[in-house]
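Researcher: Please predict.
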Amino acid sequence: MALLDIRLPKSIAHALSLPENSPKRQQLRVLKKLLKKAKDTRFGKHFNFEELLNDKSPEKKFRETVKAYDYNTIYAEWWNQTLSGDEDVCWPGKIKYFALSSGTSEASSKYIPITKDLMKGNRVSMIKQLLSLRNYENIPWKSVGKGYLMLGGSTDLQKGPGYFAGDLSGITAKKAPFWFSPFYKPGKKIAKTNDWNKKLEAIVEEAPNWDIGFLVGIPAWIQMCMELIIKRYNLKDIHEIWPNLAFFCHGGVAFEPYKKGFEKLLGKPLTYLETYL
């Protein structure tokens, strides 16, 4: 007979019985963490997150209780309140940043709430992704300490009553940690440019002054930028101007359709990193 006879709640016992690296166990852990964080919000109280947390099968109860939303519905029922400045609507605190995505027939732009926790999570993920380079073979480590050309939306965000709105990549660049500033290209002045063509012209003009090790952005944007630089300076490939370029971090769309044309612009292979930030 055991010295201690501890009876765990079924939900905890079930979670612990799953292998540590089990996707199901990880998903259950994340679900509980999110429910616990949001239980005191209007959304959390409406759907009784506290009760879901205590259920023997929280994931099943969650599916039964919380309906699936499309953008228009969740905006009409919940997110519009955050745009008005209300706190603790779907997530604790006040939402100060909104990402603008493609418009629909109902609206010119979609306003996606960007929380402090999301931005913090993105920064942590970025650092973890850099640390993951230790798992690659033959990594040119000197390139990790070179410039990071991050091509995205303008950091000159639209100002609303109590919030800022803009492209997610622009918000991310604007909120980058201070210690990243020495590595960040194209720099604050160019990053604020709203006109895409003028931004590219400025980047092409500055390209010889930078020592780039990382390219970050949507494949089509990065490819266009490299093509303009190569054409402007009559180069055979982009490595003639950026010999330490070794990494391309991409996301947003599949890279495979661009890969063949992309690699024609290179003088040597790159290490590709896909991100879901």
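Model: Strands lie at 97-101, 110-114, 147-150, 158-160, 163-166, 184-185, 212-216, 247-250, 271-274.
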